[in-house]
Amino acid sequence: MTSLTDAGAGSHTSVVAARTVSAVKVYGSGDTAVRALDDVTVEFERARFTAIMGPSGSGKSTLMHCLAGLDTLTSGQVFIGDTELNGLDDKRLTLLRRDRVGFVFQAYNLVPTLSALENIVLPAALAGRKSDQAWVDTVIDTVRLRDRLTHRPSELSGGQQQRVAVARALASKPEIIFADEPTGNLDSRSGSEILDFMRNAVDQLGQTIVMVTHDPLAAAYADRVVFLADGRIVDEVADPTAERVLDRMKQLGG
Amino acid sequence: MWKTTISGLLANKLRFALTGIAILLGVAFMAGTLILTATVKASFDSLFTDVNKGTDAVVRTKGAIDSSFGGSERGRVPAAVLDSVQSAPGVAHAEGFVQGFAQLVDKKGKAMGNPDQGAPTLGLSWPETPALNAFHLVAGRAPTAPDDVVIDNASAKKAHFRVGDRIKILTQGPTSDFNVVGIVRFGAADSPLGASIASFDSATAQRLFGAQGSFDTILTVADKGVSQTELAAAIRRAVPGDTEVLTGAAYTKENQDDIANGLGFFNAFLLTFAMVALFVGSFIIYNTFGIVVAQRTRELALLRALGATRRQVLRSVLAEAAAVGLLASAAGLAAGVGVAAGLKALLQVLGFDIPANGIVVHTSTVVTSLLTGTVVTLVAAVMPARRAGRVAPIAALRDVAVEPTGRPTRRAIAGVVVLALGALALLGGLFGKGDNAVPMVGLGAAIMFVGVAILAPVLARPVARVLGWPSARFRGIAGVLARQNALRNPKRTSATAAALMVGVGLVGFITIFAASAKLSINDTIDRALRADLVLQGSFNGGVSPDLARDVRNLAGVDAASGMRIGSMEVEGATKQVTAFEPAAIGGLFDIGVTSGSVDGLDQGIAVYDKAAESHHWKLGDTLHVRFAASGPRDLPLVALYGRKDVAGSYVISTGTYDANFTDHLDFAVYVKAAAGADTAAVRANVQGLVDTQYPNVKVQDRTEFKKAQAKQVTTLLNLIYALLLLAVLIAVIGIANTLALSIHERTRELGLLRAVGMTRSQLRSTVRWESVIIALFGTVLGLVVGTFFGWSMVKALSEEGFSRFAIPVGSLATVVVLAALAGVLAAVFPARRSAKLDVLRAITHT
Ligand SMILES: Nc1ncnc2c1ncn2[C@@H]1O[C@H](COP(=O)(O)OP(=O)(O)OP(=O)(O)O)[C@@H](O)[C@H]1O
Ligand SMILES: [Mg+2]
Predict the structure, then answer these.
(1) Which of B215, B235, B446, B772 is deepest in the core (most CB within 10 A)?
(2) What is the C-alpha end-to-end distance of chain B, expressed in Å?
(3) Of B471, B477, B843, which to mutate for an interface test with A (greatest number of A Cβ within 10 Å)?
(4) Pocket of ligand 1 contains residue A207 by CB under 6 Å
(5) Is A94's CB within 8 Å of B840's CB?
(6) Which of these three, B662, B696, B730, is where a domain ends?
(7) pLDDT (tens digit, 9 = 90+) per residue, B187-224?
(8) How far is CA B747 from CA A34, A222, B743, in A?
């Protein structure tokens, strides 16, 4: 798969933040075995915003989980930067998630006993590091959470909670952020806030983001859309617009 | 509804197993105690049945005085009565018996056995009448000469005595050597329940036990065809009025009842700890059911939405509780058999030889155990069940399980009121003059614990915040989360901590009480004891009065006096009386004589001034007292004194004691060296005397005496610690249970934490610190309550010599450290489980 945009000179790995090679994930065995990922080879470039789309059950979440070190492949390889994830033990995978990867789930992203701020700096706290205060301030202001920092998750709206989650993913300056339907539970206004914010993070901060979505409007925020069906990459669109994405979805669906 | 009960039980197997253990352990302890007591009682019953098998009637004096240490004191029957008994119609055989203290000395010169810690050391007159002899000779012959003795086979085996050997025997007379002429067994046993036996011919026994011309009892065998009742009636007509005649059966029954009484105390003592364990268990039941109901809120709400009534929901939870309680109690009952066997082995180690005629399980034991366990479980589950009934159908739609915290002010008021009621009962029991002091104090303590448990949720946040500070400060985010988790559900944290509070509260109480006792004893010794040496005999046995006489004759000894304690009746009430050598009292003790003088004690009595005051006695009055052996006596009140910690409330002279009691044994001898005498030399002399003649005596200087007194307290303290360990163990299981339930509830959150980079060891650390915070919370509550208990107990006993209140900071700090370690221990299993969570599965868990 070739790059859709020319990222200029540099080695293969300096351009690619994460990739899979012939990734296969099989759930169960025998008659009930499900091939959630079926020979997926895909790359995600640095400082780019990629959307992953596909019908329900096509393997989007599975791909994200395997990329983020939350799950392991049945066969094939996964890389975050230069690091191959296969064969890393639990401890190393945990540290990789903590230090190099950010993750935003569709729902339930926050530790209920911690305040918004504590949630944002959680990975750094887990690492026993002081977080980069200036950077954290920037992130907080960007997500417009300054007046909510001492609130507990239960005192925040769904949109605010997702913004805290995105802020957490950004605060530790990970190499790559994976977001699995981050706006799935939100109304369109809150959703577009999050998406704007992610777009900005990519444009202004050079953040790499991979996002799963079912929404063509959300996908339109991305630089590139990758389509998955039955555990395979079936198509992709560069510089998508909502219409083109919808179009492609119809084709694939039909 | 029954289906949901059963499926509820099955779905929560593990948590109910853990809950059940809390009840199981308590019931096991209770059943074990009941079974052990029944077993011991059965062996004593059969022992007495065997001993008295051939006895058809018993003659003895009337007017026994029950001693305050169990048993009773009774006068002796003049030997002439034996003739009257023998001439009564229907009497086939009649024989007089005496018994007393006789301790064997082994071949190395060591006294055998210790009547204070094990079975008694008995001296008996040898029964000539075969029907009245429960022993049978396995070697040698019956004693006939003044220096003949027959000993029991157990002692013979232990110390390798054989017929023909010489043996030294300690009695209340001079220590003397005897010829072992025979060795006996008792039925199938080598000795009766481990007691050592020295049996002499009748005249010798009378001489040794100070019973010349008299008998303790006269036992009779009836002619063929004469019933026990007829025999007793016939003898009654033949004997003087101050003697009583019992049938053999009545006598056996009396012996058995005496033992039952003694066992009753032992039983009540152990059962108290079983009750404490069950009480702690009830907190855990309450808590587990509370959590389970909260976690099942949605399911219960759905049932309500589908038309289940409140009552049905409530009943289904109670049915679960009943099932858990019954199953756990049944398991506890089974385990109790093992506990009884263990306790029995323990007694065996202590020197009580309980024949192995099996374990006795009465129906009443089965019923009591099952009922108690089940009822405790049900009662503890009532509140959670009511909460379950109150779940609104709409809760089915809500997302999270919320446990209502209730209104803090109302809770605080309720807690304070209950606490005050408990304190009132406790203090009323301690300081009041009521008859039911002990149950009042126990009930008051329990109510106070409940009061604190009600208050605890209000205290949980502030206290746990402080207790969690170190973990949050030094353990990073894992510590912060631990503290937050401990704080997030104050009710749950409190109920869990409350279970530990009970155990720790009692540990703290007993620790403080013991420290105060030691300090007070030291204080008393420092202030009131002038003696340089204390020669300690045994309380249940004693030492010959010859020791005091011999010591007095040693060079360098200024004063020496034995100390004895007996019972007498004063104005109809039984009182304890202490006897000393009047001339020596002043040199040996400071009893704080306020008026009169103990010099005149030879003929009179000295009384503690407060006791005299309450009876309106004045110096010079005559006290009308009654002794069991000698009957009514008039004793002039010759002195009043202000300290009762050495001598109790009544003091008489050794001479008066000799004249009015059958035994003449001292339990200790106090010695004062002459001014200017070399105390080391005096001690060496005394030691030499003791080693050769009185090997059942320990020579102690003041420091050693203090240490020995402290050691007695420590021994008792350790025993109580051991018994309280169960309550603490149950509380630790409770913490583990709560943590496991909480972790289950937080599965998603833990998955999330793992997803964003929390390592397994960090997660374990979080669980561990939460556990430690809960444990410390319970400990702090417990120590506060325990300190109050200790303080009020010491104050209540200030008259009895508890002059000092001590808070042993070091010991209590150890308790805190141990509690923290218990917290770590409780967290081991839940922490491991939490670390094993599959990250993805956890985060998608609903
Ligand atoms: N733990 C599992 N055990 C068995 N099968 C699973 C498991 N997780 C996912 N699957 C299966 O793998 C396939 C891919 O699932 P995945 O969650 O990746 O789909 P998705 O594209 O994220 O769908 P959606 O858009 O609904 O979130 C599905 O058929 C699913 O049923
Ligand atoms: Mg998905």
Answers:
(1) B235
(2) 25
(3) B477
(4) no
(5) no
(6) B696
(7) 778 888 788 999 999 999 999 998 899 999 999 999 99
(8) 26, 33, 6
ipTM (interface pTM):
0.85
Q: Which of B76-90, B161-175, B336-350, B631-645 has the lowest mean pLDDT?
A: B336-350
Answer whether B477 touches A (CB < 8 Å).
Answer: yes
Residues B687, B584: one domain?
yes
* Best CA proximity match to B403, nearest among B487, B293, B282: B293
Does residue B484 belong to the interface with chain A, where contact is any CB pair within 8 Å?
yes
Instruction: Specify the number of domains making up chain A.
Output: 1
Query: With a 6 A CB cut-off, is A98 part of the ligand 1 pocket?
Result: no
Helix axes B747-755, B760-796, angle to 10 degrees: 130
**How far is ligand 2, taken at its centre, from the CA of residue A67, in Å?**
14
- Its domain, for residue B630, covers 538-696
pLDDT tens readout for residues A108-134: 788 888 899 999 999 988 888 888 899
Asked whether residue B591 falls in the same domain as residue B626, the answer is yes
Comparing CB atoms, the residue among B476, B485, B843 nearest residue A128 is B476
Let me know if B750 is exposed, middle or buried by CB neighbors in 10 A (0-12, 13-18, 19+).
buried
Q: Do A65 and B840 touch (CB under 8 A)?
A: yes
Nearest-angstrom CA–CA distance, B386 and B408: 20
CA-CA distance, A103 to A170, in Å (whole number)? 9
What whole-number distance in Å separates Cα of residue A248 and Cα of residue A51?
A: 14
For ligand 1, say whether the CB of A57 is within 6 Å of any of its atoms. yes
Asked if B700 contacts B669 with a C-beta cutoff of 8 angstroms, the reply is no
Inter-chain contacts counted by CB atoms under 8 A, chains A and B? 69
* Assigned domain for A17 exists: no
Question: Residue B309 falls within a domain, yes or no?
Answer: no
Of B696, B731, B757, the domain-final residue: B696
B204 in the same domain as B152: yes
The reply to whether B588 and B720 lie within a common domain is no
Count of domains observed in chain B: 3
> What average pLDDT score do residues A231-243 get?
91
Query: Would you tell me which residues 52-91 of chain A have a C-beta closer than 8 angstroms to some C-beta of chain B?
Result: 65, 68, 70-71, 90-91
Residues B94 and B230 in one domain: yes
Span from the CA of A90 to the centroid of ligand 2 (angstroms): 23
Cβ(A210) – ligand 1 distance below 6 Å: no
- pLDDT tens for B349-384 read 766 666 656 778 889 999 999 999 999 999 999 988
**B590 in helix, strand or coil?**
coil
